């Protein structure tokens, strides 16, 4: 069962305000994507869940939860849901696997709490798209800095190529 957030004020921080020095954190975000992290070298072993979060200023950050905490958080990590996350850790983003421009990633811990947020608390889009032209995407080939591809950019490129 999901807990409904009782807060109605904006006493939360946005993703751009995150730093490694703050001990208490409360943020309200939309979970836009979620996927399993697996170790292909160890028989496809589940090592955790990764997700992408979006805030009201259209900032994104990657999040992660260790496999031992999936049972605790799994029901709260639903794509499209507006959630309040409290007491999480922030650490430097993995440079080899980066799905957000943010320099940090959010790590859920035993102390972390997640609850459904009131849809009227803040306005957060359901999606965020980043547009790139084909030349910019071609420059990223074989680089590990950006592993994502914007669907719309590919679609536009496909249409332009056909014309």
What report would you give on this structure?
The protein is an alpha+beta fold. The protein has 3 helices and 7 strands, in the order βββαββββαα. A 7-stranded mixed beta sheet has the order 5-6-3-2-1-4-7, with no helix packed on it. It is globular, with a radius of gyration of 17 Å. The chain starts with 25 loop residues before the first strand and ends with a helix. Residues 1-8 and 146-163 have low confidence and may be disordered.
Biggest sheet strand line-up = 5-6-3-2-1-4-7
Averaged pLDDT: 78
Largest sheet: 7 strands, mixed
Secondary-structure class: alpha+beta
Return residue spans where pLDDT drops below 50 for at least 5 consecutive residues.
1-8, 146-163
Cα Rg? 17 Å
Number of strands: 7
Order of helices and strands: EEEHEEEEHH
The end-to-end span amounts to 52 Å
Count of runs of 4 or more consecutive helical residues: 3
- Strand fraction equals 25-35%
Percentage of residues assigned to helices: 10-25%
Oligomer: single chain
Shape: globular
């Amino acid at each position: 069962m999901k807990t409904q957030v009782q807060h109605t004020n904006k006493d939360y921080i946005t993703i751009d305000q995150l730093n490694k020095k703050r001990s208490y954190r409360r943020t309200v975000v939309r979970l836009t994507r979620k996927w399993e992290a697996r170790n292909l070298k160890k028989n496809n072993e589940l090592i955790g869940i990764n997700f992408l979060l979006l805030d009201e200023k259209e900032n994104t950050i990657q999040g992660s939860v260790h496999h031992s905490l999936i049972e605790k958080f799994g029901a709260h990590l639903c794509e499209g849901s507006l959630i309040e996350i409290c007491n999480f850790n922030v650490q430097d983003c993995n440079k080899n696997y980066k799905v957000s421009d943010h320099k940090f990633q959010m790590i859920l811990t035993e102390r972390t709490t997640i609850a459904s947020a009131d849809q009227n608390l803040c306005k957060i889009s359901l999606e965020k798209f980043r547009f790139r032209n084909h030349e910019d995407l071609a420059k990223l080939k074989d680089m590990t800095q950006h592993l994502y591809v914007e669907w719309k950019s590919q679609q536009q490129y496909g249409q332009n190529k056909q014309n």
